[in-house]
Structure formats: C-alpha cells, structure tokens
C-alpha cells in the first residue's frame, strides 16, 4: 500500500510538470545531420582501409619480386662472396622497404583519422548550436 501512495505522489508531481512544445521536425533534422556526419566519417575510414590494403598488397608484391630476383641471381652465380653480398643487400633492402611502407601506411591512417575527427568535431559543434537554438525557440513558444 505504501508503494501505491508513493506512485500517486509521483503521478501528481509529474502531472504538474509542463514541458515546452518541441518542434520534432528540427530534432529529426538535427539527428539526420548527425547520421550524415557519421556516414561521411565512416566513408573516410573505408577509403583509407581500401588504400591501405592496396598499398600493402603492392608492397608485398614488390618484396616477393625482389626476393625472387635475388634468388635467381644467387642460383646462377658461382661466387660465394658475391652471393653473400647479394643476400646482405636483399636483407637491407627488405628492411628499409618494410620501414618505409610501415611509415607510409601509418601516415595514411593518421590522415584518415584526422579527417574523420574534423568532420565529427564540426558536426558536434553545429549540433550543439542547433540544439540550443531549437530549445530556445521551444522555450519562447515560437
């Protein structure tokens, strides 16, 4: 019985609460803009992932071609000293290319993240401004 009394008190309290009229068209428009910004940011990430995949595959292909070429040279050479030098050059080349490719891919991701962040940040600022204007119009009754 005590719960029913608490519920009735709560019901009476909320019955006196008057919420300002909201223009739900503006609210929906605001959310549409938020969704569009998220879609644009996701698109930037997808494009970066595609470019990263393409560049990684290209780097792997170049590495395999370089290794095969060096292996062919080593197989046809009769000089152990020459083969050792070619293997050392291959190791150095593979390492340098791996570092360079990693840096390039890291730069791609950094650029993509910054681009998406800027899109979302601009939208967040615009969204706060739009929400504030919508609330002010609702409070003033316009």
What structural keywords apply?
rod-shaped, mainly alpha, 142 residues
Model description:
This protein has 142 residues and is mainly α. It is 90% helix and 0% strand. The protein is built from 3 helices and no strands. It has helices at 2-15, 24-76, 80-140. α2 (24-76) packs antiparallel against α3. The radius of gyration is 31 Å and the shape is rod-shaped. The mean pLDDT is 86.
Share of helical residues: over 70%
Question: What's the number of helices?
Answer: 3
Overall pLDDT score: 86
Largest beta-sheet characterization: none
**Which structural class is indicated by helix and strand composition?**
mainly alpha
Amino-to-carboxy terminus distance: 44 Å
Topology as H/E string?
HHH
Strand content: under 5%
């Amino acid at each position: 019985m005590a719960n029913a009394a608490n519920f009735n008190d709560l019901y009476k309290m909320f019955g006196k609460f008057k919420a300002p009229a909201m223009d739900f068209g503006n609210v929906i428009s605001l959310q549409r803009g938020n969704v569009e910004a998220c879609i644009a940011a996701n698109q930037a990430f997808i494009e970066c992932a595609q470019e990263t995949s393409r560049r990684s595959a290209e780097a792997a292909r170049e590495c395999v071609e370089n290794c095969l070429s060096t292996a062919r040279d080593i197989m046809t050479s009769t000089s152990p000293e020459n083969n050792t030098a070619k293997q050392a050059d291959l190791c150095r080349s593979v390492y340098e290319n791996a570092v360079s490719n990693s840096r390039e891919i890291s730069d791609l991701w950094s650029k993509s993240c910054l681009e998406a962040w800027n899109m979302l940040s601009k939208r967040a600022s615009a969204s706060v401004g739009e929400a504030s204007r919508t609330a002010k119009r609702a409070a003033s009754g316009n």
